[in-house]
Amino acid sequence: MVRIFTSTVIIIYIPLIIIGIIVAALSDPDGYSILTNWISDLGGSPHTPAPYLYDIACIVAGTFTIPFTFYMENLLAPLPKRKGPQIHFSRMRYRLVSSAFLFNLIGSVGYIGVGIFSENRNYYNLHTITSSLAFGGFTLGAFFMGWVIILFNTNIPKLLGLYGILGPLTTIIIFLMVSNPLWEWMLLFSILAWIIPLSLIVFNKEELKPK
User: Fold this and answer.
1) Which of 17, 64, 83, 174 has a 20 to 30 Å separation from 114 between CA atoms?
2) Torsion angle, alpha carbons of 36, 38, 41, 47, to 10
């Protein structure tokens, strides 16, 4: 079921984003471009006649990444079994995995909020708040999970762990410094470049499956 949910994110989310960009580029009187337009403009009526595409994409991605977050926690630091062979991990491993779990969950809930409180429905500045939770949550989730991969034997490539630590974090720092639309898009791409390979690796390596 988790594999189906995660595949659904890739199959539905990315095409909806691409279609949304194309529709906005063809319809926005000023011309929509990732160089000059914020991601959230895809959910704003002044820029596109179909803002619901982006809203649906965010809600689907946020909702269907929640099971994957729980799955990864159980995969990387399962609780000791009451019966059978006992597996014990260090306190540091549990703490890092718990931190990754918490921030990834915040990221997922934040992204659902981005779809609900779109640019058209930015009540009480909730769109900005949920966007910050989504980007910050997924970035820190990747950071802590990257350390788990680097420090412990998870059978997930160490190179991917290193990217999880440095990739999204470096991008979000640059984005906060320059604060322009292109780097907001780069931040989104950096998070996707972490989540998609991670999910593909996890679901295609039998030795990673929790016992």
Assistant:
1) 174
2) 0
